[in-house]
Amino acid sequence: MALLAVISYLIGSIPFGFLLARLKGVDIRKQGSGNIGATNVWRNMGLLSGLLVLVLDALKGALCVWLGRYFAGGDVQLLTALAALVGHSWPVFLRFKGGKIIATALGVFLALDPLITALVVLIWLFVVALFRFVSLGSILAMISLPVFMLVFSRPWEKVVFSVVVAGIAIFKHLPNVKRLLSGTETKIGR
């Protein structure tokens, strides 16, 4: 179990946004928001690059769920998923300065509960379409995650896990919250 968690952490630590930008001669940490995630890559390197990072980051989350499920079963998949999310957020390969876990969490929850994930994605799409703030959409989507888990009577382990994941995501978005409150957060399309 510990070995699976370490492997999942290392998989989660793969900084696809950073690596893709590096292939194009760019240090994404010095562009835009400085974040290595899909949104910053999209804003600074184009939609296709951003979508590629989104897919790769989501796949590493889903892969780690499947590793836990296949090799150990039961709730070990939650441990491997958490390890991947921690790896993405605090990657050993980038001196523990990583992303905000939204894309990786998307992959994790697609593998764990596609119905809940679809509802959360709808919340994200609605908020982003209405207000044009990716960060606000991400925060409200993550807040809705444990709510949907409760409404649909998911096992308590998944409810607690979703609360932990939402907490990490909100923590990683605190600078965005400050910018939202001060009116300086960047909208999409600008």
Structural class: mainly alpha
Helical residues, percent:
over 70%
Radius of gyration: 16 Å
| First-residue to last-residue Cα separation | 45 Å
Summarize the structure in words.
The protein is mainly α and 190 residues long. It has one domain. The protein contains 10 helices and no strands. The protein has helices spanning 2-12, 16-23, 38-45, 47-71, 76-89, 102-112, 114-131, 134-151, 156-172, 174-182. Helix 1 packs antiparallel against helix 4 (47-71), helix 4 (47-71) crosses helix 6 and helix 7 packs antiparallel against helix 8 (134-151). The longest helix is centred in the N-terminal third of the chain and has 25 residues, at 47-71. The protein starts with a helix and ends in an 8-residue tail after the last helix. The mean pLDDT is 96.
